[in-house]
Amino acid sequence: EDQRSLYRQRIKQRLQERDAVLVAHYYTDPEIQALAEETGGCVADSLEMARFGRDHPASTLIVEGVRFMGETAKILSPEKRVFMPTLEATCSLDIGCPEDDFAAFCDQHPDRTVVVYANTSAAVKARADWVVTSSIAVELIEHLDQRGEKILWAPDKHLGSYVRDKTGADVLCWDGACIVHEEFKAQGLLDLKAAHPGAAVLVHPESPASVVEIADVVGSTSQLIKAATEMDNDTFIVATDKGIFYKMQQLAPNKTFVEAPTGGSGAQCRSCAHCPWMAMNGLENTLAVLEDDNGCGQEIFVDPTLAEQAMKPLDRMLDFGA
Ligand code: 13P
Ligand code: SF4
User: Fold this and answer.
1) Relative to the CA of 47, which ligand 1 atom is closest?
2) Which end of the chain is more exposed for a tag (fewer CB within 10 A), N or C?
């Protein structure tokens, strides 16, 4: 514990010396979220992280999250230095959507408006007409559908089919999934709901349709947190990464939050409701990056041509979500 508090002290000092700020996602470990809060950084969903990073006056951003969040921050603020505790923190959606295959898919469907989830590489974003996060996905697709546009959606098939069901739009989906949300199981959730009759069920739309169907509220991380604070229920069953419990518990200390069941345990369970890449963000590697002027090689660089192309759909996302 002494060691951890020394890390925290030193991180605070180095953030000041380097004119840097922490930008953390709700899925990172509680001590990272707490540190971001204490030091004037943000803890947020992926849309809010993008906006915070762009608007904050600090010259250096330390992105506590996964790679696409660091890349998005860099694209929106090319003049800032952007570091991550480790560049190895990726995302199964990003991995599952390689740029060449994606470009070929787009080429096969030139009549469709290309909408990609924020959880993609800069190269995939560069090919898109729109970038979205889960907090604005339904509204945006509704808007495009009303304009008569047909959609090519990538990479998350569960979010894609949720959006299609909600809007009735013509949505052609890429076949990708999040390894964390994919593990939630409908039967286990129904059993747990039966054991907690007064509980509200909160589900992130990266979960399978059978799980989404059981939800009282479906939404992005910040929308689920809002529901947890505003709804009258005493108990909530939550189907998303367990990192989110930190903020829910903080904002609603008298309520009970229960983890939704995943497919297996131990070796059977690849993620167990905690993203293995989000979990790579720790005090030690955050400090290491801040101690070294070159950030131990964990600085984000995005090819300027790609960045320029990716900026357009990202700007549209931020304007639409404003
Ligand atoms: P949101 O924070 O936008 O809901 O995204 C969830 C996610 O999977 C980020 O990894
Ligand atoms: Fe990607 Fe899923 Fe991890 Fe989010 S939780 S970063 S979508 S693998």
Assistant:
1) 3
2) N
CA dihedral sign of residues 270, 276, 277, 280? negative
Q: What is the pLDDT along the chain (322 residues), one digit of tens a residue?
A: 799 999 999 999 999 999 999 999 999 999 999 999 999 999 999 989 999 999 999 999 999 999 999 999 999 999 999 999 999 999 999 999 999 999 999 999 999 999 999 999 999 999 999 999 999 999 999 999 999 999 999 999 999 999 999 999 999 999 999 999 999 999 999 999 999 999 999 999 999 999 999 999 999 999 999 999 999 999 999 999 999 999 999 999 999 999 999 875 544 455 579 999 999 999 999 999 999 999 999 999 999 999 999 999 999 999 997 7
- Please name the residue whose Cα sits nearest to atom 5 of ligand 2: 275
- Annotated binding residues, as ranges? 25, 46, 91, 117-119, 134, 178, 204-206, 221, 275
- ipTM, interface predicted TM-score of the complex: 0.97
218/207 Cα distance (integer angstroms): 10
Ligand 1 atom with the shortest distance to the CA of 133: 3
According to DSSP, the residues that pair with 64 across neighbouring strands are: 24
Q: How far, in Å, from the CA of 67 to the mean position of ligand 2?
A: 10
- What domains are there in the chain, each with its CATH number? 2-88+278-302 (3.40.50.10800), 93-173 (3.40.50.10800), 181-268 (3.40.50.10800)
Q: Residue 28: which residues within 8 A CB-CB, separation 6 or more?
A: 43, 64, 65, 243, 278, 281
Tokens of 102: 């994606």
